[in-house]
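for the writeup, i need someone to sanity check this before i put it in the appendix. the sequnce is what the collaborator sent (i think, or maybe the updated version? ugh). structure was predicted straight from it, no edits. if anything looks off just tell me and ill rerun, i have time this weekend
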Amino acid sequence: MLNHPRSATTWGIDDSERLYGISDWGAGYFKLNAAGEVTVTAPVGSDEATVSLAEIIAGIEQRGHAMPVLLRIENLLDARLSQINEGFRTAIARSDYKGEYRGVFPVKVNQQCQVIEEIVKFGAPYQHGLEAGSKAELVLAMANLKHDGLLICNGYKDREFIDLGLWANKIGHRCFFVVESPAELEIILERSRVLAIRPLIGVRVKVSAKVGGLWTETSGDRSSFGLSTLQLLDVVEKLRQEGMLDTLQLLHCHLGSQIPHLDDIRAGVLEACRFYADLVALGAPLDHLDFGGGLAVDYSGCRAGEVHSCDYSLDDYCDAIVTGIRSVLDPRGLPHPHIVTESGRATVAYASMLLFNILDTHHFEAVALPEALPNAAHPLNRHLFALRDCATAPTLASCYRDAVATREKLRDLYRQGDISLQERAQGENLFLAVAQSIARHLDGLEDLPESLNGLRESLADIYYGNFSVFQSLPDTWAIGQVYPVLPLTRLTEPPSRDAIISDLTCDCDGKLDRFIIAGGERRTLPVHPLRTGEEYYLGVFLMGAYQETLGDLHNLFGDTHVVSVRLNSDGDFDIVREIGGDSIADVLSYVEYLPQQLYEALRSSAEESVRSERLTLAERQSLLKKFSESLNGYTYFGR
């Protein structure tokens, strides 16, 4: 069902670019080429390269990987690390700030080996470090991190966690234990004495300034992590009594995640700096100030302070922190600390995208109607037939209410056994014809009647995508996160259909029905009609943060194939890593089945069927071969 007319004779790539907002949220990385294909542009040395995603998909499929695929562009990881570090260097130079920037990547945002290795490799010249919030994350951080990068240990810590961190210091890392609760300090001091290794300690303070967005509970008095002001004073006094106040060198605060408003960041920075200055006055030799995460990704591209956007740039963010620190510390004559941020989302979001094909569609459209209904047609159906021509601007709302009421009467009659299935089917078809007639009049209305608000969405197609929301895009289901979604080809053509995207799972929540369109949020996605014998590909962008590890095995759909690509200066690309997605045997083993036992159970059943003559020997062999192939096959749909 069309939301508005789209003329094939006047449509061009500029129209597609505006419709899908690619130049707004794409940050210069994603564009459209003259062929109507989505391209990725990334730095390559001092130059940049542009490659069509359609070309990359062709290369992936020629290597035997079917859709869906998680695609990573390594150059974009490198670019984001560089931009964040250079952004702070520029702000520091501009403000004559005397401290340095020491970025760290929070491992929880994307723990995948290829991602961590690339961050450590490209971040090494910037001394970019890692943040670990569990023993498993600390182990991988210790093994990957170069000795001159910071290692920040957040979260609750037991003795084993603390022992690992102390040994990390011993081998040359600058590993800070961020004290989240007073009980942790006792364990840190005890294990330090036992191992005779002096710790580096930070304290996390609860900043009372609240931020907007989806993650407001990560800041403020009710935050699960951090010390109250009284607890903070107790930690300082305890360290003084133990003769270890010199180990307290970092103040940590977490302003929030995906903070949409720059003013909230400024307020949090000022409050954190007050804590910093007062702790220094108490004798703590602080020289690192860690603001945690919060740097937002503009998913919608609207540059506004709403939950899926932000009202500031990277430069604004860097300047707000640098100038905020100076405004508090300079009047007190205090040295400028090294600035630490834990930007995870903003580092990895752009580098990963989900690519999938559309398998089928369902249209909510009336089939062809006769010029007139036969006299024997049910009176309610004859009434619906007449309503098709009464839809004019002044009567749209009343006409629709009448049609809905008539359809409900028909359904009641069917439930009571008073009309036939054929009569009900005719009524449903006539109702769709009335609804379509009304919807065609909506574009010219300045004020849409409330009763017609959801009409367009109710007529939208369902496009069935070859993926699982719960495995690949869990935040869309869990917290209502919205990601940019658009077709990857045919963008010189007007998208003449509107659809929601349903996944492969047997779950009504397995769908995408919120989209960034023309600078706003809509419940349907403009798409093209499918062509026989031609694949139709969609991409979900900016989904590199959290989605890969949070995935769920709903309906036993497993991890997708993962392909990492590096763009070259000649406009070509190298596929540098290929990781096959989970097989059916893999996912069955995750839920404690032994694939070989399943095969043996079926073999025994097949043998029994041969004995009872339900199967021939040839059929038995065909069945076992197909079962074995399925065990080793991809969990997603194959052509």
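The mean pLDDT is 93. The CA atoms of residues 362 and 462 lie 5 Å apart.
thx in advance!!
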